[in-house]
Amino acid sequence: MRWTARDIPDLKGRTSVVTGANGGLGYVTARELARRGARVVLACRSQRRGQSALTRLLEEVPEARAELRLLDLGDLASVRAFAGDWGEAPLHLLVNNAGLMAVPRSTTADGFESQFGVNHLGHFALTGLLCGALRNAGGARVVTVSSLLHLIGNVDINDLNAERCYRRWLAYGRSKTANLLFTHELARRAAGTDLLAAAVHPGYADTGLQLQAARLERNAVKERVARLGNRLLAARPEAGAMPTLYAATAPGVAPDSFTGPGALRGRPGRTPRAPWTLNDAVALRLWRASEELTGIHYPLPGAG
């Protein structure tokens, strides 16, 4: 599929939220949506990094309608505040992009294992709290960024917070499986409505996440190795963001689809996924556990 950012349709009159838009894929996604006329909200944890990204975006796209709003997906109080400030104003596109990758074990403000808490629970809560705004938009989309590394592990429903055993890459893979199970169940619940839920992966792209673990460990050698790998092997963020932009804007995107490059790099298209990410029973169990952990329930007809 020879699809590029030039194929993004006119987005004037549409509003989007991109989490983790201060850098990497999130920044490119926000910039290209703004370039095509969408009003874009950069939902970022850091005021400093978010403001820097916003300034850069406005320099690159002077006509952009863009703004910064603070959002910490590792703190449900912050998620509730963001959604509360948003209210019921129509939201046409929510891009669940922010995430952590293979970091040392830590917990969120609410006591959840950080990768599961940020990558899955934070976005589960945000999407649920913004569900009314998404429904008010008419034809809205929720695009969640997963990873090919979901292939390394299914979720452990009995140990979602990795309390018995924590291996950081496995925890990352399980959180990315959770993203796909979330999309699968959201698509089921949204059936019969005009809300579309889809998932994507960037292949091997320079997202900035590869440096997280080394920086948290203060390991300069690992950081240099990660930088070298990105420089030699990874696709640039502009290429890595194409699956997200495709799922967010292209006509004919199917519910519960999984879009990514054909291999580690390349043009966006339908891509295989692990069979466990299509398991209805596991998706439902994860959804119910996520409701219990976050205290958030979705106002969708397919619930229950």
Report on this model:
Residues 14-157 form the Ketoreductase domain. GO terms for molecular function: oxidoreductase activity. Keywords: Oxidoreductase. This is SDR family NAD(P)-dependent oxidoreductase. Helices cover 42% and strands 12% of the residues. With 304 residues, the protein is an alpha/beta fold. The model has no long low-confidence stretch (mean pLDDT 91). It has an 8-stranded mixed sheet, sandwiched between helices. The chain is built from 11 helices and 8 strands. The protein has one domain (11-207, 238-289): NAD(P)-binding Rossmann-like Domain (Rossmann fold, 3-Layer(aba) Sandwich), CATH 3.40.50.720. Helix 3 runs parallel beside helix 4 (114-129), helix 4 (114-129) packs parallel to helix 6 (168-189) and helix 6 packs across helix 11. It has helices at 24-35, 47-60, 76-86, 114-129, 131-137, 168-189, 212-217, 220-233, 237-240, 242-249, 280-294; strands at 15-19, 39-44, 65-70, 93-96, 141-145, 196-200, 258-261, 268-270. A hairpin with a 6-residue loop joins strand 7 and strand 8 (268-270).
List keywords for this structure.
304 residues; alpha/beta; Rossmann fold; eight-stranded mixed beta sheet; 11 helices; 8 strands; globular
Query: From N to C, what is the helix and strand string?
Result: EHEHEHEHHEHEHHHHEEH
Name the shape in a single word.
globular
CATH topology annotation? Rossmann fold
> What distance lies between the first and last C-alpha atoms, to the nearest angstrom?
37 Å
Number of domains: 1
Biggest sheet: strands side by side, in what order? 3-2-1-4-5-6-7-8
Q: Care to count the β-strands?
A: 8
Determine the strand fraction and express it as a percent band: 5-15%
Mean pLDDT: 91
Helix count, DSSP H or I runs of 4 or more residues: 11
Name of the CATH class: Alpha Beta
Specify the CATH architecture: 3-Layer(aba) Sandwich
Instruction: Give helix % range.
Output: 40-55%
Q: Which structural class do the helices and strands define?
A: alpha/beta
CATH homologous superfamily?
A: NAD(P)-binding Rossmann-like Domain
